[in-house]
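Interim report, section 4.2 (structural modelling).
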Amino acid sequence: MKARCVREEMAYTGEELRSLWIYRTFDLEGDAIAWFAGPCEVSGEHLVDQVDAAANDHIKAARMMHFIIEHFDGDLNHAILRQRLLVCMAGEVLGGEVAGLRRVGDDLFVGEKKLSVSIATVSPVSNLIHFAVNIDPTGAPVRACGLEELGVDPWRFAERLAAAYVGEAERMAKARCTIRGVP
Amino acid sequence: MKARCVREEMAYTGEELRSLWIYRTFDLEGDAIAWFAGPCEVSGEHLVDQVDAAANDHIKAARMMHFIIEHFDGDLNHAILRQRLLVCMAGEVLGGEVAGLRRVGDDLFVGEKKLSVSIATVSPVSNLIHFAVNIDPTGAPVRACGLEELGVDPWRFAERLAAAYVGEAERMAKARCTIRGVP
Amino acid sequence: MKARCVREEMAYTGEELRSLWIYRTFDLEGDAIAWFAGPCEVSGEHLVDQVDAAANDHIKAARMMHFIIEHFDGDLNHAILRQRLLVCMAGEVLGGEVAGLRRVGDDLFVGEKKLSVSIATVSPVSNLIHFAVNIDPTGAPVRACGLEELGVDPWRFAERLAAAYVGEAERMAKARCTIRGVP
Amino acid sequence: MKARCVREEMAYTGEELRSLWIYRTFDLEGDAIAWFAGPCEVSGEHLVDQVDAAANDHIKAARMMHFIIEHFDGDLNHAILRQRLLVCMAGEVLGGEVAGLRRVGDDLFVGEKKLSVSIATVSPVSNLIHFAVNIDPTGAPVRACGLEELGVDPWRFAERLAAAYVGEAERMAKARCTIRGVP
Amino acid sequence: MKARCVREEMAYTGEELRSLWIYRTFDLEGDAIAWFAGPCEVSGEHLVDQVDAAANDHIKAARMMHFIIEHFDGDLNHAILRQRLLVCMAGEVLGGEVAGLRRVGDDLFVGEKKLSVSIATVSPVSNLIHFAVNIDPTGAPVRACGLEELGVDPWRFAERLAAAYVGEAERMAKARCTIRGVP
Amino acid sequence: MKARCVREEMAYTGEELRSLWIYRTFDLEGDAIAWFAGPCEVSGEHLVDQVDAAANDHIKAARMMHFIIEHFDGDLNHAILRQRLLVCMAGEVLGGEVAGLRRVGDDLFVGEKKLSVSIATVSPVSNLIHFAVNIDPTGAPVRACGLEELGVDPWRFAERLAAAYVGEAERMAKARCTIRGVP
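Predicted structure of the assembly:
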């Protein structure tokens, strides 16, 4: 699994969550995690979660650290499990630095303030996850906070989370190959 | 998904990790998590992880809190993802109470001492997970610690972890049904 | 599995057979069956069965009782099996009331007159079934009959079929969890 | 899909429900339905349904018409759907001849008397179904009736059911190949 | 599996690689291989391989023998395996006639000259393969050769390859049904 | 995918075709191909192909080059496709050296003499292939020939085939990740 930090600022609009976007955009072949910072605004037809879409909701923040993950295997249940695991791991990475951090499903909160957004889905050829953590939550439609005010270096956080996720993926792939079935 | 706390002391030998054992033993139908306390000794042919089996390793502790989980769907990758998520969640539940707790793959450690064991596998009809946390680690073949010495009430911990896991399973099942695919 | 009777008259054009339409339209989350009465006209690009499409065929009736079913699991073979089971069950429900009723694949006939239409397919995230029984077959491109002339109350029929289908789905889900594999 | 009527009397003990038994016993290659008449007695470890096994239940009748079906594809959900469809179709075949016939899940009843038994399961390489209809129910552990007392020719019934099932399997396989997906 | 030789000259643009195109165009139902001769020009959005698309590459030749294959089962890995097998078999068919033929992945070469192009993919309901062998390579963006200059009758070659592929598919389907699983 | 040449002489009896045998025997983790030379005798319950088993057939040769392959993914159709591809590739490797070589399904022949045996199957956790080429065919139950009399160095052949298979597996895995789906 490849990991790529993209230093140029990029906006996330939801259109990026499609098969092979990572490959076409960053030339990363195969299972990959890429991350970049930039504004976030997802609405209307680009919303993948139909709970948001049905509520005419939108996702917005002035600046977030975005993670896009693509795995070329698995069904929607794999995608959702991988997403939850990723958000748990984000909690593990941030836990030591941020007081009052808690995870609720695929969201991180600090107290009552939302720190992150996430969606997992499938394309015809892959599993896809978008996970983004506010750096500056300005514009968010709910009470939110960001890494900036929490004093967390977003790039260092991203680097650690990506390394942890890649490591976990490799350990799971390895474990997969030493387990026998049971009756 | 059903949850059942079993108050009678039971030993875990590895034979319990088979399809429909929860149903036959506790009369729990469908996806379920059951937990009980008791000694642990798994060796030889009952080892599911062939890394352990190849090393003539064994798993042992005087008393552990055992969790057995069965999901009637999914492949081995689902089983492993569910297991990692469970162990992460055990970390979330214990994190506030236990200083120096860390997760490495499917293991919890306190400092250099191992707190837990776990395996995930498949049967012909289901996903299966065994996760066990030392209460009293006496007899463990590696440096280990237990909930007792950490001052954690094992039954309260188990109750909280099981509730969190069931809640997560339900949230994921719900999320599964409001997500559209992407191109 | 949820069931919802929609009392307002709605037309069926084929566009309704898409993932999460039930959720977006009726706010029913998860596996569901919804039914409503209204005219039916499906043609051209909205035809899912390419036998019809290739023949420049169309589906039409002045008023039908429409059932839309979505299951958030399964492949196309599951969808087709579920559809056949549903049509069999419609036959069981109507059998006592309608003389000369017979099922041929996914169609019901009374003598030589066609009583129903049906299609099963997959979306990127689900199984989908449309099944519709003529109330007033006026406009149908083949010899057809309807519940009205047969003296069957369409709402009572729909209620009974939906209840039977939901019950069957639940019994099957339960059976799934008490069966062991064989060598 | 092949169909084979076996005229020699054979007992069914549950051991027959295993992969490739039809091939090894009757030299029928590929998806197949085979039927034969004989006594039935299934108990203990040969019970596939753990509800029966847990209850120390057994299945018994002096003489039944047995159907064994194997499909070399599909998961346990396909097996169960195919089984329900088969039992529905048995109802369609018998419906005209037997008053008071009704289906409840995978069982046929005449009034309160049980007419049939059935199980569906998976082997490592296939879907398997056993369906058996009492000819002479003597020895059954519940109130039961048989085709003999109902005046139904068991061989003619079996022939018709098998032909209907094979026809349905072929129609479904054909339908599978003319359906497009939807968004 | 059905095979159809189409004698009318047809161009291949990439749009033909979609589910049920064979059925709609040639009225062939079910798993099928169809072949025809004609010019080839695939570019831009019709490229399925994103390596080509990313490189702004295109596929072109004055006249090729085109094979379109659709199987109504399988995932993308099945599609790719089937494609490699097909290309191997093309090598087997041509091997006796063409000196210096070699296969590299899904391509055939004669010395350093490219003889063929191929892609395998999935639709929502099927596996799809396009394989085409140059008859007259004029216009190809790389060094290429064609059957014409090699003195190979393209129609006879196509007939032999299609027959071999259909035979192999049937032998594999048959083998599938006589194999037991192992522990 | 790992490759391992085992220089010590070992017999093949059929028992070796089980999940994780490569790992336990050669300490090779993950997808792997291992090869070794030795006598072959498979009969009775160790036969995986029930055509052989039903015919009371057996597989025997004084010395063969054995390949055991395990992939930790895929169903029985993947296993069979991989096997056919492997046998094709053995043909490609041997083709230049051996006159009159031809492939029929999963067998290689030289003229009318059988050169190889092969089986593909599934375990609860993996795909498995055994492919063996006679070095000295003495004892074979059919007319057979061997690499020795053909003047082919079995170790060099094995090395080339294994390298080709590993290369193909890697190219396919890479191709898997640059292909988009089609409608």
